[in-house]
Specification:
Helix content is about 30%, strand content about 20%. It binds zinc ion.
């Protein structure tokens, strides 16, 4: 035993010698984002932690040790590593195998013919044989001459099952073979909170499935093996690292996906910090997978908290995700008033969809609060947001209770709802990229006034809320500078300014993906700013986002990404 202890001590001493070499970054514009907004010149890092921040002169004198690594920033800008506060990491594992059917500037698709052309190229490039699945993503009927149906796909692809993901990720268009695979026929009833588009005047499915009608289909889509997916973990993390992210989110995790992430973590394949939000609907499976078969089904949620809130090999379960509604561009968000246009299947007096009723939400929410589990709700429409407010009231939540529950998207809303957030201690994660991608569509569906208040970042700040901003990748590109550009400019595809009053400063747009995001994760003591004692998560940029005009934010480039003091991406 003594011998063992001795060799252990010896080993750890050797290790600490090996790691004691620090890194001195100097000659930069280091945006610390501390309370005073200090811009430093130099930062010294040891063992992945920030030891000192200050001027070139002070740090070069203090850390004059020859054995340390000295890195000249050459006047470049260093920011805290970006925190992706809402996206879908699992999509990064798959997206490289899917056909990009997005409208410009994300993809090449302007017509149905373009869709067919891209799918044909995808099939031949990927050597996809007859009988094998073809998956596409980014489908957006708003920018096509007409909605895509199974007939468009059947004509050219009679021998491959096809699933085309809707750009909201809350639906898909399937061809006949794919509908047959999932046994969706004229006799399939439309589930509550879902939509099965039918051929006019008949019950025959036309191809589009949304929300609850889509969720099961997507979950049962044939998957690559666990082994294949594990091999892709590096490639997926690099997609994020390349954009300067050091902490990322898996924002709607199924049980099998959590299992995969856990396997990746336990085999040291995860080097970014990944925050996983298991879906509430997966809780029963999670319990039986990880905590043994519970005899008491009523208390499922009581058994989870041990698993929450701490990183384990860079993977953390950050709370539970509850989706309340769909998406505004897919017209499946839950709205208080009727849309000014018809519903997704031509419905009149359309107010969108909600995925569960108020009573069920209230009970779920109360249970999560009782068990001290952080709740991340998804709500896009003003009625969906009202439902969350109601549920938090029912569960007794209030400002200062330390919960920091997050309302992801918080898009179509009203000033009184922000006031309720303040009272109840709710925190919004906005999605200003919508202004660019679907701002014009929202004006048509909702009218100018309501559409202009979408993702009200400035009002939220003025009311004292700590808000963030996200990409919801793969809904919009991972590019963090796009979130900054849309938050500060609020320009639509057609070049209109939407909600000028809600424009924020470059600094606030940067805080929304760094310090504020760290706060929403409950990690503000270790991340989000460049201050002594915090983790050395940095991104080096070609220009200073606080000095360039807001119109130029999209020109920013990531030069290097550093996680725990180690370079994980270099341009
Ligand atoms: Zn999402």
């Amino acid at each position: 035993m003594k011998l063992f202890l001795f060799s252990f001590l010896l080993l750890s001493t050797i290790n600490s010698f090996a790691n004691s070499t620090g890194q001195l970054y100097y000659n930069g514009a280091i945006l610390t984002l501390d309370k005073k907004g200090t811009v430093a010149e130099s930062v010294y890092v040891e063992d992945g932690k920030i030891i000192e921040v200050g001027t070139n002169e002070k740090l070069s004198k203090k850390f004059n040790n020859k054995s340390i690594e000295k890195i000249d920033l050459n006047g470049k800008t260093m920011s805290p590593g970006f925190i992706d506060i809402h996206s879908h990491f699992m999509n990064a594992l798959r997206i490289t195998e899917w056909a990009n059917l997005s409208a410009p500037p994300v993809g090449p698709v302007k017509t149905i013919d373009d869709i067919i052309k891209v799918l044909k190229e995808h099939k031949s490039k990927g050597k996809i044989k007859d009988g094998e699945w073809i998956i596409g993503y980014g489908y957006d009927e708003n920018f096509l001459e007409k909605p895509l149906t199974k007939f468009d796909l059947d004509k050219e692809f009679p021998n491959n099952p096809i699933l085309i993901l809707h750009v909201s990720n809350h639906g898909a268009v399937l061809n006949s073979l794919a509908l047959k695979f999932f046994n969706i026929t004229k006799d399939t009833p439309t589930p509550k909170g879902g939509l099965i588009s039918r051929v006019a005047g008949t019950k025959e499915p036309e191809g589009l499935l949304m929300e609850t009608a889509f969720i099961k289909v997507f979950a049962n889509l044939p998957q690559p093996s666990e082994e294949e997916l594990l091999k892709k973990l590096d490639q997926a993390q690099q997609l994020y690292a390349k954009e300067g992210y050091t902490t990322v989110q898996e924002g709607a995790t199924h049980a099998n996906e959590l299992k995969l992430l856990k396997k990746g973590a336990s085999t040291q394949k995860i080097y970014l910090d990944i925050v996983s939000l298991p879906l509430i609907t997966e809780v029963p499976i999670l319990i039986s997978e990880y905590l043994g078969n519970p005899s008491d089904k009523q208390n499922l949620l009581d058994k989870l908290p041990k698993e929450f809130g701490k990183y384990n090999n860079n993977l953390k379960i950050g709370g539970i995700k509850i989706a309340i509604d769909g998406s505004p561009q897919g017209k499946t968000a839950s709205f208080k008033d009727e849309l000014k246009t018809l519903g997704p299947n031509g419905e009149k007096h359309w107010k969108g969809e909600k995925l569960l009723d108020q009573k069920s939400l209230n009970e779920l929410y109360k249970k999560l609060v009782k068990n001290n589990i952080k709740v991340w709700t998804h709500a896009n429409g003003d009625n969906g947001i009202d439902m969350i407010i109601e549920a938090v009231k029912y569960s007794g939540g209030k400002k200062g209770d330390g919960r920091r529950d997050i309302v992801i998207h918080s898009q179509i809303m009203h000033p009184y709802q922000l006031d309720e957030y303040v009272k109840l201690g709710l925190s919004p994660s906005f999605f200003t990229n919508h202004v660019f991608f679907w701002g014009d569509v929202h004006v048509k569906n909702l009218g100018k006034t309501l559409a202009s208040y979408i993702s009200p970042m400035k009002s939220a700040k003025e009311k004292g809320l700590i808000g963030t901003n996200h990409t919801d990748f793969s809904i919009t590109p991972l590019n963090p500078f796009m979130t900054m550009w849309t938050a500060t400019n609020r320009v639509t595809r057609s070049g209109e300014v939407l909600g000028e009053k809600e424009r924020v400063t470059n600094l606030d747009a940067l805080r929304a993906i760094t310090s504020n995001a760290a706060w929403q994760l409950g990690e503000e003591k270790t991340k989000g700013t460049i201050e002594v004692g915090k983790i050395a998560d940095f991104v080096i940029l070609n220009e200073n986002p606080l000095e360039i005009p807001k119109e130029k934010l999209l020109d920013l480039k990531v030069i290097e990404t550093i996680k725990n003091g180690k370079v994980i991406y270099k341009k």
